Amino acid sequence: MTMLPTPIRVVIVDDHAIFRSGLKADLAQDIVVLAEAATVEQAIAAVTAEQPDVVLLDVHLPGGRGQGGREVIAGCAALLANTKFLALSVSDSAEDVVSVIRAGARGYVTKSISGAEISDAVRRVAGGDAVFSPRLAGFVLDAFGTAEVAVEDELDKLSARELEVMRLIARGYSYKEVAKALFISIKTVESHVSAVLRKLQLSSRHELTRWAADRRLL
């Protein structure tokens, strides 16, 4: 007896009802649409309620603070471990692609692709892959390849112990909590924090937290 594939549960977010209807009809049978949304607020509510495997997300949406798809992802940040976002847009601008990927989307495809291609992209994103329309992948490599090299260069300045202290301080641990976790004195923690701030050219632990968060090191 042939086992049927486990359905992939999705939410479609787009402000054009006709497009949502057409997309829903074009998706493969193993992809189940749980809900649809047309605005930033509706999208956050639907994704939070349904907690789908994949969200098919338009980049430009009405509502919210005017940040569109990026704002939807930010509003669902607590779900990113299990819910993947696949941007689906008419826009192929580098700015839109990089912006939504920085926010946490796992892929970006244009609306010109076929239903079969979108279905395949949904399956791949649900499986943990990053998926991009061929022309758009270069934008991501250009933006994040340079950024990764820069982050590695910055982290190379720190010793192994300084890295441990940096991560804990950036996550909000107190000096006393860091000392207890790493079995070192508070004075040693203070010394390591001073060295980290100096090497990274930062002026406070608040700047350090922001620095680490921007580089997804938390």
From TrEMBL:
Record's keyword terms, sorted: DNA-binding, Phosphoprotein
Superkingdom classification of source: Bacteria
Matching Gene3D superfamilies: 3.40.50.2300
GO biological process: phosphorelay signal transduction system; regulation of DNA-templated transcription
Sequence ranges assigned to domain Response regulatory in this UniProt record: 9-126
PROSITE patterns: HTH_LUXR_1 (PS00622), HTH_LUXR_2 (PS50043), RESPONSE_REGULATORY (PS50110)
Transmembrane segments: none
GO MF: DNA binding
PTM sites of type 4-aspartylphosphate: D58
PANTHER family the record matches: TWO-COMPONENT RESPONSE REGULATOR
Identification of the protein by name: LuxR family transcriptional regulator
Taxonomic lineage of the native organism: Bacteria, Bacillati, Actinomycetota, Actinomycetes, Micrococcales
